[in-house]
Amino acid sequence: SSGINAEYGVEEAAKDYEKQLCDRLPSMELDLALCGMGPDGHTCSLFPGHPLLKEECLMIAPISDSPKPPPERITMTYPLLRKCRQVAFIVTGESKVEMVVASLSESPSTPAGKVRPASGNLFWFLDSKAAAGLPHDEDQ
């Protein structure tokens, strides 16, 4: 079978899923990662202040203390996101305004804002509510 094996514990599930990705895609270069962003600026399961933000080896990591339910899950990490050819964020709603501004600043302070493909493209698709805090051209 393929995909995340729900029969495994979180540690084994992360190892198994990373192996599946590597078996199918030895370069680990995904064509596209489609991401969202939570109102706290998290993406994937990379939460503000969490030790996984410093992970530099694992491409898929377990998290057993997620601040958002469910507490146990697996996540892509920055090393995998950096290898993506394209990363696209889709962010909606006024609850995200402050984090959109923080993510798109020159020195991003949010986990989402720190996603930077090494040689790929990064796109942010925002609705008007999420983009309300950004400078805009009145003529457009």
What do you see in this structure?
This protein is of the alpha/beta class. It is 20% helix and 16% strand. It has three helices and five strands. The strands form two sheets. Strands 1-4-5 form a three-stranded parallel beta sheet, with no helix packed on it. Strands 2-3 form a two-stranded antiparallel sheet. Helix 3 links the parallel strand 4 and strand 5. The longest helix has 15 residues. The protein is globular, with a radius of gyration of 16 Å. The N and C termini lie far apart (49 Å). The model has no long low-confidence stretch (mean pLDDT 94).
What is this structure's SSE topology?
Layout: H1 10-24, E1 33-35, E2 60-63, E3 73-76, H2 78-83, E4 86-91, H3 97-103, E5 121-126
Parallel strand pairs: 1-4, 4-5
Antiparallel strand pairs: 2-3
Mean pLDDT: 94
SSE string, helix = H, strand = E? HEEEHEHE
Give me the side-by-side strand order of the main sheet: 1-4-5
Derived from helix and strand composition plus strand pairing, the structural class reads alpha/beta
Number of helices: 3
Radius of gyration using CA atoms only: 16 Å
The biggest sheet, with number of strands, parallel, antiparallel or mixed sense and barrel status, is: 3 strands, parallel
Amino-to-carboxy terminus distance: 49 Å
- Tell me, what's the shape? globular
A few lines on this structure:
By secondary structure, the chain is α/β, with parallel strands linked by helices. It has helices spanning 10-24, 78-83, 97-103, and strands spanning 33-35, 60-63, 73-76, 86-91, 121-126.
